Amino acid sequence: MSNNNILYPLLFKPIYKERIWGGCKLKTYLGKDIPSDSIGESWEIADLPNDTNLIANGNLKGTCFKTAINQYKDAILGGKVVEKFGLNFPLLFKFLDAKDDLSIQLHPNDELAKKRHNSFGKTEMWYVMQADEDAEIIIGFKENCSSSQYLKHLENKTLPQILKRIKVKAGDVYFLETGTIHAIGKGIVIAEVQQTSDITYRVYDWDRVDAKGKSRELCRIAVELALDAINYNYVDAKRVYTSRPNQNNPIVSSNYFTTNFIPLTAELSIVKNSDCFRVYIVTQGLVNIQIENEIFSFQLGDTILIPASITNYVLKGQADLLEIYIEY
């Protein structure tokens, strides 16, 4: 059987992560079968050494994603992706449920991450799926800052005073380049697209205590490493986009990934090359993906990988979709 015949739109078994700030909205809002009421993250498509999803549908159901990549590398990833990244899936897709405020943190760029951790950096994009009234995020400084100003406020536990708070609503998008200090506030569900990396420097945690009443100690090394990883300049991370129905509306175009918004009310034919996979995140509604005479159905909360070898298909239904790929 050829790769084209065996491959199809892939769904994955989520990897759930308990977090002190997690809640239960991944179940109540997205319908995820979470194992507890403190799940902060659902890793939808991941390829890290200790976190690789299992395929959840079709002929390859139960197969480790890494095993499938090894077997069908060009057909799943695409020739250009294999050429650049080898057999490593270059992106990580997840949903986050912030019942409480996340710690204030940042991620190193590719150069620092490679040198210090033998990892990629972590450029990321947030799509706000749901937000409680007055929910906020933190992205960057209120105005240009210096390392000495930053350190003074960090030591005095007044860091939030110099950071920019932003009220958010469903549909808002923020593109966070590496080095941008940030935090997701309570009452928000986010779909996140990022480079494949789990390197995070946490610098402030609201003097929070754990379940035993003990202060959550931040890693001193991470705090120190953050000093030359931070972008101290003011940043505008919000991305404004159009919502023309049944079209690809550009949101983010970067060296790491491209993201489009598709408000689907009828159908949209996709014709692409085999250089790269595509991923669709269903943020509202129901969508059918037709490949020749076969139809695959998906719903809110699904994250779907279209293998690179599938170059012609039709999106049908009533849904809002995020479309993500690497442009070559």
What features would you highlight for this structure?
zinc; PMI_typeI_cat; 328 residues; Jelly Rolls; isomerase activity; 2 domains; Phosphohexomutase; alpha+beta; seven-stranded antiparallel sheet
Would you spell out the secondary-structure blueprint of this structure?
Blueprint: H1 3-6, E1 12-13, E2 15-23, H2 25-28, E3 39-45, E4 47-48, E5 51-52, E6 54-55, H3 65-71, H4 73-77, H5 79-85, E7 91-98, E8 104-106, H6 110-117, E9 124-131, E10 136-141, H7 147-155, E11 163-167, E12 173-176, E13 182-184, E14 188-195, E15 201-204, H8 220-226, E16 238-239, E17 249-253, E18 258-264, E19 267-271, E20 278-291, E21 294-299, E22 303-306, E23 312-325
Antiparallel strand pairs: 1-6, 2-3, 3-7, 4-5, 7-14, 8-15, 9-12, 9-14, 10-11, 10-13, 12-16, 17-18, 18-23, 19-23, 20-21, 20-22, 20-23
Description:
It is a single chain. The chain is of the alpha+beta class and 328 residues long. It has eight helices and 23 strands. It has helices at 3-6, 25-28, 65-71, 73-77, 79-85, 110-117, 147-155, 220-226, and strands at 12-13, 15-23, 39-45, 47-48, 51-52, 54-55, 91-98, 104-106, 124-131, 136-141, 163-167, 173-176, 182-184, 188-195, 201-204, 238-239, 249-253, 258-264, 267-271, 278-291, 294-299, 303-306, 312-325. A seven-stranded antiparallel sheet has the order 2-3-7-14-9-12-16, with no helix packed on it. A hairpin with a 2-residue loop joins strand 4 and strand 5 (51-52). The longest helix has 9 residues, at 147-155.
